[in-house]
Amino acid sequence: MESRITDHRLYHHGILLGILVVILAVLVVPGAAAAPFSFTISPQSAQAAPGGSVPYTITINGNPGFNSPVTFVMKVSAAGYTDTVNLGTYNGPYPKTFTYTLPVPSQVPAGVAVKATVTGTSGADQYSQAVDLQVTGGGGPVESIISAITSAINSILQSLGLR
Question: Which of 2, 84, 133, 163 could form a disulfide with 157 if both were Cys (CB 3.0 to 4.6 A apart)?
């Protein structure tokens, strides 16, 4: 009888241990394995004036034996504006380098912070990296309007003797 109770306890401990291993596996490994490729982007952070552009150099690296095509997109967002740009598909062998030049529209006012995420996809595998762009200098109609309003307010305040 004693051996049956011990066997029963061992059985239940085994089940509990199995459940614990599954829970830990889910918590420790949240998601799929790493993609068989990666890439670097340079520069990670840049500045450009309205009407200018920033060339981004992207180098694709593949694990040994990986030669599958990788398709790239860049999702750009700034001040409520979003756009997705197709950067093309590149075939192995890797490493392989390409350049994408991001244009900055002339109507974008200085001071706007642009966030972009570049994602490479090959089959079910994805790898992403973020880059930042700060719009510098003068330009754009919004900046001109703000400057004109500020100038008019200062003139009114000066004529009233408040400046």
Answer: 163
